[in-house]
Fold Octicosapeptide/Phox/Bem1p (PB1) domain-containing protein.
Amino acid sequence: MVAPPNAATIKFLCSYGGKILPRYPDGKLRYHGGQTRVLAVDRCISFAELLVKLGELCGTSVTLRCQLPTEDLDALVSITSDEDLANLMEEYDRASAPKIRAFLSPPKSAKKTSPSPSIATASTPRSFSEIFLLCCLFFFIQISGGDLSVHPPDLKAGSVSLVL
């Protein structure tokens, strides 16, 4: 049963921590992974108050993008003000949709910055060749008894070589 537009509360179906990906075989976008929770709020909530509640729901500050009732996931609308929020609620009232479909993500400024390239290469290999070279280095350290004063042989795998 759909709540009338003058109901005191409105529900948001909030998804966060996942990704929007194409579905096989038709390529239609869908949300995969993460969490999905329902949040009921007073209809006269301000945008700022809503962001606080959404942040409490996720445990971090968020940006809000919503799916309009007649649109697919490729046309999400960013909600950034009281006016955007009022327009969104009006669209859902017009369509008699029971819940507002919301997608939450960390704000761009809150996303983790990547470490410097020298640290990233040493601690988080990003390619097969880097993993291979690190395994070779580990193997060399094992067979040399941990004596790093001995230089390893020049390891070659196609165009990849390791030189310390």
